Amino acid sequence: METLKIIGAFIVLAGSIFLFLGSLGMVRMPDLYNRIQAGTKASTLGTILTLSGIIFLSSGWTGKLVILILFVLITNPVSSHILARAAHSVKLKLTDKTVTDKLTEDEELINEKQ
Fold first, then answer.
1. In degrees, to the nearest 5, what angle opens at C-alpha 95 toward C-alphas 38 and 85?
2. How many domains does the chain have?
3. pTM (predicted TM-score)
4. Tens of pLDDT, residues 4-38
5. Which domain holds residue 31?
6. Which site among 37, 41, 43, 90 is 20 to 30 Å from 28 CA-CA?
7. Residue 54: what are its φ and ψ, rounded to 5°?
């Protein structure tokens, strides 16, 4: 029983580290699109690890925590994708360091064909 608590504590710690790195990425990235990417990947993994660690610490909550993990897996990437598409549709500027914008290229290709 004690080993499960130690494992759970390390998994929660790993999740907390990923959440911290995600917030650091949100501050350091140059534009909204990079911030969304950094925040989404780190927060998804950090939240899943934290909830998984809690499963080891409190086994009575396993069902509810698995549902929360599935919810995070589905909603977090979808919501960040929707936010990025909305930002792109209102022509939010990319950073000057951006090399390519495939979505704009595809939209221009579609407009040329019409």
1. 60
2. 1
3. 0.83
4. 999 999 999 999 999 999 999 899 988 888 899 88
5. 2-113
6. 90
7. -65, -30
Q: Taking a C-beta distance cutoff of 8 angstroms, is the pair 59, 18 a contact?
A: no
How big is the chain, counted in residues? Answer: 114
Task: Tell me if 20 sits within 8 A of 72, measured CB to CB.
Answer: no
Task: Find out whether 113 and 80 touch, Cβ atoms under 8 Å.
Answer: no
**Structural tokens at position 106:** 């595809």
Instruction: Report whether 5 contacts 56 (CB < 8 A).
Output: yes
Q: What is the dihedral of CA 101, 102, 108, 110, to 10 degrees?
A: -160
Hey, what amino acid is at 47?
T
